[in-house]
Amino acid sequence: MKKGFTLIEILAVVTIIGLIFILVIPKIATSLKNKKTDVDTTTNNIVLAAAKSYVADNHDKFDKTDNNTYCLPISTLTKKEYLESPVKNVTDDVDITNTKSVKITYNKGFKYEIVDKKECSAVYIPPCEQDYCDYNGNGYTEVDYIESTGTQYIDTGIKLNQNSRVKIKYQYSAGSSTARVFGDAHDISKGWILTTQDGTTNAKIQTLYGDTWKPQSNESQSIIPSTNIVEFERNGVNQYVNNNLYYTNPSSNFETTSTAIVFGAYYNSLSLSSIKLYELWIWEDGTNISRHFQPCYRKSDNKPGLYDTVTKEFYTNQGTGEFLYG
Question: Rounded to two decimals, what is the model's pTM?
Answer without folding.
Answer: 0.64
